[in-house]
Specification:
Blueprint (H helix, E strand, L loop, with lengths): L2 E6 L6 H10 L7 E6 L4 H12 L2 E8 L2 E7 L2
């Protein structure tokens, strides 16, 4: 299992979702991706993208204007 981090700070929707999608294409099933963002819309958009594409959201957290989504590639 591989762990990767994607810096999507200062990007506005839909760019964080697009960058997440592009990164997931390079990963294997079981890999974990942590996406770090500053756009609060990602708290809905990335989990929705995961549901549509069959990936698993392991964690979401918001802290001082920083939004983090941890997902597992399925």
């Amino acid at each position: 299992m591989n762990q990767e981090t994607l810096n999507a700070r200062r990007l506005l929707c839909p760019l964080p979702v697009i960058r997440t999608q592009d990164k997931v294409k390079t990963l294997q099933s079981g890999d974990v991706l942590t996406v770090e963002c500053t756009d609060p819309g990602v708290m809905q958009d990335i989990p929705a993208w995961c549901r549509i594409n069959g990936h698993k959201v392991l964690e979401t957290r918001a802290d001082n204007g920083e939004y983090v989504i941890v997902l597992q590639v399925i």
